[in-house]
Amino acid sequence: MRVFLLRWPQVMFVPLVMMNLLIALMGGSYERIEQNTKNAMRRQRAELMVSLEVLMTAEERANPDHFPRWIHWYRPKEREEEDDGAENGVINGVGRQLDSAKKELEARITTTADSAKKDHNEMKKEMQEQNDEMKDRIVSLQETVQAQQLAMEQMASHQSAQLQAILAAVGAGKAEPELEPEPELEP
Predict the structure, then answer these.
(1) What tens digit of pLDDT does each residue of 25-56 get?
(2) Cα separation of 3 and 93, whole Å?
(3) Which of 12, 18, 43, 113 sits between 20 and 30 A of 62, alpha carbons compared?
């Protein structure tokens, strides 16, 4: 009993799908036959009109009441897709729905791709601006470091000169030499 309960959905699924497919095919066939019947009726009516026209005299064919210059044909808006030459039916309806879904999906993909390109270009531009800003900061920092190195070298040379003066004074026997004031560093 347990095996039967486990297999029950599997046993019933395939026949159910096959039955629905058969119903759809039969419905599509019926609609196709009905459309072919309408087309056959129209064709027979046209053939009858041509055969009647052949039997008419030249005066009867020249009558504008029977043979107007223009023929106007009206049909209700709800029947607009009915006689378009394509087969109607359940299967073709599904095909039309798939085509419209495909077009909608392609439009979404195009819109998404365009949006992604725009976002990518904006991010690229923003990153380039940040990169340029960082380069300017690096150049500014390098200039500051070079200025500080130059000031330190000047201070070192001044201190070296003072040390030389102290050593020369000590070597000459002077008590203390006169020192120059230290230069101020610029920030």
Answers:
(1) 787 777 778 878 888 898 899 899 888 888 88
(2) 40
(3) 43
